[in-house]
Specification:
By secondary structure, the protein is mainly alpha-helical. It contains 20 helices and twelve strands. 37% of the residues are buried. Glutamic acid (GLU) is lined by residues 8-10, 42, 183, 197, 201. Glutamic acid binds next to loops.
């Protein structure tokens, strides 16, 4: 049977990084084996599932580029099918009706707790006749003895004793099927060969295997992936910072960087840190995933992000940068070619937010000079170089890097100054801060009018400062 994996989120919130990593591992496993990848929305919990969350999950999957071959399937659309299987189990005597009252179950539970036993259903209704037309649940008749052995691809062999498992409810009083039943039916109907999921589900697995066996089917292979921890060793949660995939997008992380970061969280290939998606597909092996939980490390994510920003195709990066400029109220259409701006800034930013911030001056006049830079460079000694630069630049019609570069050289030479003594005040004048790409590219992209206007502003500033000092 050809490989088929699935990602099966419950739409009760955004897609968090743990879920995204599980989705990635499943995707990689399918791609590596030339198989198929299914997206299934497990929305049977009607109280907690929302359309908003479904959209958020789909958006995050698209942003990450984890494309699926089938789905999204919605469990709420498959109730007839689940009921068909439940009825089949009932007919074969593999499931039974139970009308134990809440009081009885509470009492049972309390007694077990007092005796320090594991709370579980005692099979009271197994042999009873429970009519169909009064309120009841359906329970799966779990094998009373023997064991379930799971050869987990990540955790190795796990053995569960059947007498530790009780007869779980597969259909609630309101007629809705429960998680363990729906998953089994779906994995079966969808032909899933490999179930890769979070290890919070490991205790459900023997129950699912028992149901599958009752139906005469062969269980899929399982791989339970350990959870992601925060830097303090507890389960990663909001209090550690961003946990939602889309929050990382909003913080200026590239999807390829997040995927690269996530794949390394619990999987390794020698000492290598950087993997393109193609390399991941080639090298990833679910059996190499670590059994132990791994801790999220934001510093490392930023380092990887910087790497991808440097390496990215500028057109691709420009597309991703654009919304971040939008956040700053900048319309990239109203200024220099964004691809050229990206090319100039690629080496200078760790995130797209940072890149947007340091690119703002290309699109509008800065509000004030950066204080330190102005103090250091916009002084009386800069007056002459700036004046000369202004005059020289005003006469340039061919506003291009090379000509602009030559202008800075010429002014430096005629004043017998090192180039930095001209270029640095010029930079602060034009961009308002001490750092920017090369002065020639900076001037070219800022444009002639804005450059001259800003130099005038810097000249005024120096004059005002000199007057202040004189009084
Ligand atoms: N819907 C479950 C969850 O979001 C996953 C179930 C599974 O993968 O079997 O945790």
């Amino acid at each position: 049977m050809s490989t088929k994996t699935r990602f099966a989120p419950s739409p009760t919130g955004y897609l968090h990084v743990g879920g995204a990593r599980t989705a990635l591992f499943s995707w990689l496993h399918a791609r590596k084996h030339g198989g198929k990848y299914v997206l299934r929305i497990e929305d049977t919990d009607l109280q907690r599932s929302t359309a908003e969350s479904i959209n958020a999950i789909l958006e995050a999957m698209t942003w990450l580029g984890l494309d699926y071959d089938e789905g999204p399937f919605y469990q709420t659309k498959r109730f007839d099918r689940y009921n068909e299987v439940i009825d089949e189990l009932l007919e074969k005597g593999l499931a039974y009706r139970c009308n134990c009252s809440r009081e009885r179950l509470d009492e049972l539970r309390e007694g077990q707790m007092q005796r320090k036993e594991k709370p579980r259903y005692d099979g009271h209704c197994r042999g009873q006749f429970v009519p169909d037309d009064a309120p009841h649940v359906i329970r799966f008749r779990n094998p009373p003895e023997g064991s379930v052995i799971i050869d987990d691809q990540v955790r190795g062999k796990i053995v569960f004793q059947n007498d530790e498992l009780d007869d779980l409810i597969i259909r609630r009083t309101d007629g809705s099927p429960t998680y363990n039943l729906t998953v089994v039916v779906d994995d079966l109907d969808m032909g899933i060969t490999d179930v890769i999921r979070g290890d919070d589900h490991v205790n459900n697995t023997p129950r699912q295997v028992n149901i599958l066996q009752a139906l005469g089917k062969t269980p899929p292979r399982y791989a339970h992936v350990p959870m992601i921890l925060g830097d303090d060793g507890s389960r990663l949660s909001k209090r550690h910072g961003a946990v939602s995939v889309m929050e990382y997008r909003n913080q200026g992380i590239l999807p390829e960087a997040l995927l690269n970061y996530l794949v390394r969280l619990g999987w390794s290939h020698g000492d290598e840190e950087l993997f393109t998606l193609d390399q991941m597909v080639e090298l990833f092996d679910i059996a190499d995933v670590n059994k132990a939980a791994s801790a999220f490390n934001t510093e490392k994510l930023l380092w990887i992000n910087q790497h991808y920003i440097k390496k990215a195709d500028p057109t691709h990066l420009a597309r991703l940068l654009s919304p971040h400029l939008g956040e700053l109220g900048i319309d990239p259409a109203g200024g220099p070619d964004l691809v050229e701006v990206v090319r100039a800034q690629q080496e200078r930013a760790q995130t797209l937010i940072e890149m947007a911030e340091i690119s703002e001056f290309f699109y509008r006049d800065y509000e004030t000079f950066e204080e330190k830079a102005a103090k250091k460079y916009l002084r009386a000694v800069a007056l002459e170089p700036l004046r000369m630069m202004r005059e020289r630049l005003a006469g340039i019609d061919d506003w291009a890097g090379e000509t602009l570069h030559q202008a800075v050289i010429d002014v430096s030479e005629s004043l017998e100054l090192k180039m930095g003594k001209v270029a640095q005040p010029l930079r602060v004048a034009v961009v308002g801060r001490a750092a920017s790409p090369g002065i020639d590219v900076t001037l070219e992209l800022v444009g002639k009018d804005a450059s001259l206007r800003r130099i005038d502003r810097a000249l005024d500033y120096i004059h005002a400062r000199m007057e202040e000092n004189a009084t």
